[in-house]
Design a protein that fits this description.
Chain lengths: 176, 296
């Protein structure tokens, strides 16, 4: 049975244009509607895994980021699909985490975080600039994802406990 | 803190006021207990009881959970204690032994294994007549050290005692990296280790929304609490029988047995526990702090 879940989400920088995203679980693909035109993106879902039916869409700087979970009954990861304003796929990224924060989207880079992992990616190519992992699962820090990501000059703040110097990727403050 | 094996054996059968309470196990007395969810506590008048570690109740030493030398109750022995409160199925008490625990605040907890036992207990001299010495809609605040068994949302730990988490690289922890083929994922729950067949219990009052078997999860029971929170328990054995979908459960109800079904066949028995709090996956260890390592 085909299950379609529609989520109406942010309009971002697209003015009054309605942007929607949905998951076709039977076909294992994401469907994004931009300016009245649907764009479909097959998602590679391994045997035994399933696509979560509630994707999240974040938009900014002419970029749409679609978050969707791939999971079985005891593990999960969030895949991020980047689409430009014309509906063209730019890149995808596997966060290897869940409970992802809403991303920080800037002109040149995007910042992602979830379950003790934080990433800086090139906004156009998705290439990784820097990453930190194990900030939660090693039980060193109380960083479970979900917190808002913000910038203060050259410091990216992933949570009250995780601060990273943007230019070098150096961890500046990581507290329990 | 009482050892794991000792904790399982610390059972209470009755509570006496000046040794006047004979064992009361009659079913007719069980039926006259308080309504589930009612709150009783001792009020201003402390009640002195003799607790006998014999059968029926399990001690939880809340205030001294990290103090290994604070276990003062052994199976078959009596100990004088003062019941000072109640929270759900848990009875809060003090005793000379717990007061002397280093760093302890003098409170401990024990609870009925199930509602029937609890109601039976309520009919004892140290039960209803003692505990309802002062009724209040607001139960006494729990000692901070009791968070290992009851969390702030009122959910009780799903096992009768904490058996630890597998610690071979942290694979049993929430968020731990797991592989499926070449891909990396994060573990969505916490694996609590316990002997195969150990009863798994409902952490809340609610209903069973799903009860099935899957190749990965094995025997699985999903409970939706009355407050909207959801718990998933996986890899359970067939014994005790798992709760059926649609069933109503109360705190402490047996919902299945710890096992290693599904893709856990090669592992030691454990209870994969997931918590969805306010609609979001949450770390079970943030709800109940089960310390230590199972050694598996």
């Amino acid at each position: 049975m085909k299950l379609i879940y529609i989520i109406l989400l942010s309009l971002g920088s697209f003015g009054s244009d309605l942007t929607t995203v949905s998951v076709d679980q039977s076909q294992k693909k994401l469907v994004i509607n931009l300016h009245g035109t649907s764009h479909e993106f097959p998602i590679g879902v391994p045997q035994g895994m399933s696509l979560d039916g509630s994707p999240h869409l974040y938009s900014g700087e002419g970029l749409h980021l679609i978050f969707t979970n791939v999971e079985d009954h005891e593990v999960a990861t969030t895949l991020v699909l980047a689409v430009d304003s014309k509906g063209k796929k730019l890149w995808s990224f596997d966060t290897e985490a869940f409970n992802n924060s809403p991303p920080l989207i800037e002109k040149k880079h995007v910042y992602l975080a979830g379950m003790g992992k934080v990433y800086k990616l090139d906004a156009k190519t998705g290439s990784l600039a820097w990453r930190h992992e194990g900030l939660y699962e090693n039980k060193k820090y109380n960083f479970n994802g979900g917190e808002a990501i913000s910038r203060q000059k050259d410091v990216i703040i992933f949570s009250p406990t995780v601060h990273v110097k943007d230019s070098s990727g150096k961890l500046l403050e990581v507290t329990k | 803190m009482i050892s794991t094996s000792a904790a399982l054996k610390l059972l209470f059968s009755l509570c006496l006021v000046q040794s006047a309470f004979a064992e009361t196990t009659d079913s007719d007395q069980m039926s006259t207990g308080p309504e589930e969810g009612e709150t009783y506590y001792a009020g201003a008048a402390p009640i002195t009881c003799t607790l006998r570690a014999k059968g029926g109740y399990l001690i939880r030493e809340g205030a001294s959970k990290n103090k290994s030398k604070c276990s003062s109750f052994e199976k078959g022995s009596d100990s004088v204690a003062t019941v000072v409160g109640q929270d759900g199925n848990w009875i809060k008490f003090t005793s000379e032994e717990t007061k002397s625990c280093p760093g302890g605040v003098g409170y401990s907890y024990f609870r009925a294994f199930n509602v029937q036992d609890f109601q039976r207990y309520q009919n004892g001299e140290c039960g209803r007549s003692a505990l309802d010495g002062g009724r209040t809609p607001t139960p006494p605040a729990l000692a901070e050290s009791s968070v290992d068994t009851i969390n702030s949302r009122g959910h009780t730990f799903p096992l009768d005692s904490c058996h630890g988490i597998k610690n071979d690289g942290g694979l049993g922890h929430y968020g731990a990296p797991r592989r499926r083929g070449s891909r990396r994922y994060a573990h969505t729950g916490t694996d609590y280790y316990a002997p195969c067949g150990t009863p798994a219990r409902s952490p809340c009052n609610g209903s069973v929304t799903s009860s099935n078997y899957g190749d990965v999860a094995g025997n699985t029971v999903v409970i939706k609490c009355n407050n909207g929170d959801t718990f998933k328990f996986m890899h359970m054995h067939a014994r005790p029988p798992k709760a059926r979908a649609g069933a109503t459960v109360t705190v402490g109800s047996t919902i299945g047995g710890v096992g290693n079904t599904g893709n856990a066949r090669s592992q030691a028995c454990h209870l994969h526990t997931e918590a969805i709090i306010n609609g979001r996956r949450s770390d079970p260890q943030s709800l109940w702090a089960c310390h230590g390592d199972s050694g598996h």
